[in-house]
Amino acid sequence: MPVSDPRNERRSRFECLYREHADAVLRYALRRTGADAAGDVLAETFLVAWRRLDRVPAEPRPWLLAVARRVLANQRRGEARRASLVIRIAAESREREPVPAESGDVGSAIRRLPARDREALMLVYWDGLAPGEAARVLGCSARAFRSRLHRARRRLSRLLGADEEAEPEAMVGGRDAYVRAAG
């Protein structure tokens, strides 16, 4: 009777995890950053998954998206440091770049939302997560997430000048139009 090799079992489990969820993680990253950075987010997310394979829950997608969210946050902090340096250099040289005017479209309205509101809307409407799953990604309770999502919808409605009770996807012609308009 052959003895199973734990390394092969671990590798097989990881390969299965990657096959089943890499596309979802990549789509999540692509909606939040550029294509080059999205590939890095995917790689770093699955590096964390490999290192913590024994801690990956039975429902891995929310866990993986939470890891990807933290990877993106780390990237943004790095970008913020770089941007701060650029601003400091520009101030020293007395150069200023013009600020682009805001347009009235959905993408512009979403960009003007606070980051927490944008994230709540994106998890539900772009990533297709249920509120409970999205709450796990954000590390909060489902009740707290539903409240956050309600406030985000209300703020987006105000920015778009739409009826306060309208769903964001109804305002722009459904999920696909919402994704195209905001992306």
User: What is the level 1 CATH name of the largest domain?
Assistant: Mainly Alpha
Residue ranges: pLDDT <50 for 5 or more in a row? 94-104, 169-183
Percent of residues in beta strands: under 5%
Helix coverage percent = over 70%
Q: Estimate the global geometry from the Cα principal axes.
A: globular
End-to-end Cα distance:
55 Å
From the helix content, strand content and strand pairing, which structural class follows? mainly alpha
CATH-defined superfamily of the largest domain: RNA polymerase sigma factor, region 2, helix turn helix motif
The domain count comes to 2
Helix and strand pattern: HHHHHHHHH
Average pLDDT for all residues? 79
Q: What does this protein look like?
A:
By secondary structure, the protein is mainly α. It folds into two domains: 1-97, Orthogonal Bundle (Rna Polymerase Sigma Factor, Chain: A), CATH 1.10.1740; 101-183, Winged helix-like DNA-binding domain superfamily/Winged helix DNA-binding domain (Arc Repressor Mutant, subunit A), CATH 1.10.10.10. It contains nine helices and no strands. Helix 5 crosses helix 7 (142-160). The N and C termini lie far apart (55 Å). The model is unreliable at 94-104 and 169-183 (pLDDT under 50).
